[in-house]
Amino acid sequence: MKRRPRPGASQPAGRAAARVTGPADGDQDLRSLFGQSSAIFASLAGPAHMLETANTAFFTTIGGPERTRTGLPLGQLMPELAEQGFLTLLDRVYRTGEAYTAREARVILGVGAGAREGFFDFSYEPRLDTGGNVMGVRVIGVESTQVKQAKRLTAEHRVLLEQIARQAPLADVLDGMARAIEDLAPEEVLVSVLLADADGRHLHHGAAPSLPDFYNQAIDGIAAGEGVGSCGTAAHRRRPVIVTDIRTDPFWDDFRDLADKAGVAACWSTPILARDGALLGTFAMYHRTPRAPQEADLALARTFADTAALAIERHHAEQARTTAEAREKAARDDLAFLLEASTALSSALDAGQILSRLAAFCVPKLASLCAVDVIESGRVRRMATAAPTQRAQDLLASHIPVFDAADDAVARVLASGTSEVARRTPTGPGPWHDLGVTGYLCLPLVDRSRAFGAVTLLSTAEHSFDGHTVALAEELARRAALAARNARQYTHRHTLARDLQAGLLLPDLPQVRGADVATYYHPAGEGLDIGGDFYDVFPLHDGRWAFMLGDVCGRGAIAATTTALVRHTARAVAPLLPGPEDVVNAVNRALTNRPAGHGTGFVTLIYGQLIPTPTGLDVELVRAGHTPPLHLDADRTVRTVDAQGMLLGIGPDLHVTPHRLHLRPHESLVLYTDGITEARRRDGEMFDELRLTEAVAGVPARPGAQQIIDSLTRAVHFFTDGDVIDDDQAALVLTATEPS
C-alpha cells in the first residue's frame, strides 16, 4: 500500500530534473560545485570581458569588498591584469575559441601597498551558445587541495564519457561511476544506480559496489511509486527526493529494517531521465549517518545523473540496434529456410517424395520429431517420419493415428482443418513416453479448403513451440500442401498422357516374316503432352505388310486426334487400295476434309509396303515431306533414299513419287523423325544428318534392327550430354533376315 507523506515529511529537494538545460544551467552547477571551495570561478561575457558572475573565492582572491562587483569589464575591475598579459590571453581565447591553460602562473593582485603575489593553476575556456558561437570566457583558478579534488572529479567524468563513447558495457560504466564518486567524495558515501524497466514501473539493480549484496537483492525490482523509499518515490515523481534520516521518514516504513541492517541512515535519490522525459532509473547517494545535502552535493548528483542518462540511453540504442539486427537476421534465415524448402518441395514430382522432404526439413529446424499423415480411402496413412535416431524414427513410424478417434490430435486437425498446439503429450495412444515427448504442434495440409493430411511436430526436453515457430511451420505446411497438390495434378496428367500416347503407338511389335523390326520413341519434355511423332506396322493381304512413320505439327490433344486420323485412315484404306501412293492420297483427303476444330496442321509421313521374297524384302514407299530414310547395305554403307513428295494436309492436290528398293539379307531401312537430327547440345549445335549417318554406319557387321536403334540413341544421348530434349524423337528400323 502506498503511504501518504505526513506533514513535515521529506520533500523533493533541488530543482526539477526535467529542466531546460543550456550554458547558464551548466554555469550554475559549476558554481555549486566550486562555490564553497578556494577555487576561483568567474564568467565573463563579450569582447570587453564583462564580469557576469563569480564565486565568493574569486572576489576574496582579487582583493576585498571594494572589488565585489559585477557588470564591469574585468580590465576595469582589475587594471593590474593588463600589464601582466592576462587580458591579452583573454582576448585570444575569445577570438579563437581555443582554451588556454597555465600551471603555477605568478599573478600580482591589487595595486600599491595592498598588492599581493599569488600562484595559480588556471584555465580560460570559451563559453559557447547553443549554436557553438563564443559568447564569453570562463575563468577557473585553483589554489587548494579542494580544487585538485575537483580536477580529479572532472578527469573521472571525462573517463566515463570516453567509456560511453567507446560503447563500453553499461554495467562497467555505472560501476566505474559509482566507485569514482565514492573515492572522490570528502565524506563516506555509498552510491547506487537502479535501472527502470521498459514501462517505467519497476527498478532493477544497476550498480552499487559498496552496498551489501543482500540489500541490492532486496530492492531489486521495487516498484516506482509514492512512498516506496527514496528511489521508488523519486522515480514516481520524476524529481529528486531527499531523505535525511531514514529512521523517521515515512517513505522508508517498509524498508527501515533493511536499511538498518545495511547500515545506512540517509538516502538522496535523483531520477535519471531521458531527453524525452522518460524514466531511465535513479541515482542514489547513501550515508552512514543522518545528513542533509549541500548545494554542491545536489550539483554532483545532477551531473552524474546526466552522465548515467547518457550511458543508459546509449545502451538502449545499442540494444535496439542489436535486437533489430537479430530480428533482421532471423527474418533472413527464415526466408532462406523457406526458399530452400520450397525449392526442394516444388522440384519433386511425386507427392510421397514431397511429404518425405517436408518431414526432413522440419527436423531439427522446427522440432525434434516429425510425422506426416494423409487420408487414403477413409483411413489415415503415415507417409513420412523424421527423427534424430533410427530407433526414434521406427517408433514414430509404427504409430498410426485413428481417423475418427475423438481423442487423437491428428483426427481432430483433419476434421477441423485448424492447427493445434500444446505443451504436453498428444492425447490418445502413442509412443510418447519412449520418445520423451513434452509437447506437440499439429498442422493441417489443406487443398481447396479441405484437409487431406496433417503434419505433427513433437518437442522433447525443454523445447517448446513459440509463436514464431508456429507461424514458420504453418507457412511451410502451406507450401508443402501446394507442392503436393501440384504433384498429384502432374501425376494425373502424366498418366493420362502416357495412356493416350500408348493408345496411339503399337503396344507390341508384330512378327513380320522375313523382317526384323525395331522401334524407338521418346517424347520431349516431361511427358505431360501427347507427342506428335508416331509409327505403325500392320499386315495386309497376300503376305504384304504396311509400315509408316510420321510427324504431326503441334502437340497435345489436337496432335493426338490428327495422329489417330492418319493411322486409322491408313489402316482402313490400305487393304482396299493397290499401292502406297493411293493410301497416302486417301490420308491427305481425310486431313483436308477434317472439321476445323479437329486441327489444321500439316503432317509429314513415310508410308510403305513390303513383301518377303526368297532374296530379301521388296519395299515400295512414299515420302510426303518427311526426313529422307536411310538404306544400310550389307557392307555398312549408308545411302539416302531419294523419294520426292510434299506435305500432307496442305491442300487437296498431292504430288508424291513412289520409290522402290530391295533389301537383301542383313540390309536395313532406317526411318526417323527430325527430333533426332535437330537434337541440340548446350552450345546450340545440332546433331544433324552427318552424325546420324555415322551412327548408323558404326554398327557391327550384320546388325539386327535393335542394334541400329541402340547405336543411334547412344550417339544422340552422348551428343546432348543427357540434356532434356525439346522435340519428340522416333525411329523405325526394318532389317531383312535370311530366308527361312
UniProtKB/TrEMBL annotation:
Species of provenance: Streptomyces zhihengii
Keyword Transcription regulation: no
Source superkingdom: Bacteria
Keywords of the record: Hydrolase
Chain ranges of the PPM-type phosphatase domain: 515-736
Region (Disordered): 1-25
Pfam families: GAF (PF01590), GAF_2 (PF13185), SpoIIE (PF07228)
Protein name from the UniProt record: SpoIIE family protein phosphatase
Domain called GAF: residue spans: 156-322, 323-494
InterPro entries found in the cross-reference section: Bact_Sigma-Reg (IPR052016), GAF (IPR003018), GAF-like_dom_sf (IPR029016), PPM-type-like_dom_sf (IPR036457), PPM-type_phosphatase-like_dom (IPR001932)
